[in-house]
Amino acid sequence: MKALIFDVDDTLYDQIQPFERALERHIEVAREQIEPLYLSFRRYADEVFEATAIGKMSLKDSHIYRMKHALADFGYQVSDATALAIQIDYDYFQGQIELNPVFPEIFSWCQAQGIAMGIITNGPYRHQLRKIRTMGLVNWFELEHVLISGQVGITKPNPAIFQLMEERLGMSGEDICYLGDSFENDVVGAKAANWKAIWFNHRKRVEPVAPYQADKVVTAWDELVEVIQSF
Questions:
Q1: In angstroms, rounded to a whole number, what is the distance separating the alpha carbons of residues 109 and 15?
Q2: What are the φ/ψ torsions at residue 161 (nearest 5 degrees)?
Q3: Which segments does the entry list as coiled coil (predicted)?
């Protein structure tokens, strides 16, 4: 492994925390429902992401859609206005996210080993860049090696965004490993580009039927250091 590339959302930080804080401002949700509700929210977000990226659905409409449908799955009926208000608070609390404490050790190890690092993330450019800056990632990553779909016009799992990273690094795919929490976007996209892939399945999702498999599966934050250092 000559390079290790990271996903951002729910990989470098726990995305449930800002989601839960946003919900608490507007509705009462049973604690045991938070994680499955969040997973439903992510599923609906993925469902409309491409339509939003190419302009077939407005960002506002996609925010309302994913929030309303996720809540409805658990019996919570909210208006468009409430769904949008929750989303606005969710965005606000994402401005207060913190890098999971396992990653500085991983970043330092990569630097000591001469392993290049980068980021590939889906989302609007300014929104994702704010998260990257909030977590202090600009201290670890060269911006040339940070690819945000909203900036480059390519979204995961399209292998073209992974190939663009190869060009930026001056490396071939077999020398690069990708770490991410989404099987569909991260594992499938990386493997389609002939990269190695570590699936960070800390939400214990069921592995979908797919033509690709992850090279490693990690299910807990505290397992990441050992797996990466032995990869």
A1: 25
A2: -75, -30
A3: none
Residue among 34, 33, 44 at smallest CA distance from 69: 44
Contact 188, 157 (CB under 8 A): yes
Cis before 157? omega within 30: yes
Instruction: Quickly count: other Cβ atoms within 10 Å of residue 207's Cβ.
Output: 12
Go through the domains of the chain in sequence order and give each one's CATH number: 3-13+98-230 (3.40.50.1000), 15-95 (1.10.150)
Coil/strand/helix, residue 102: coil
Strand partners, 4: 117, 177
Amino acid at site 82: T
pTM: 0.92
77-110: pLDDT as tens digits = 999 999 999 999 999 999 899 999 999 999 999 9
- How far apart, in whole angstroms, are the C-alpha atoms of residue 199 and residue 210? 14
Q: CA 222, CA 231: separation in Å to the nearest integer?
A: 15
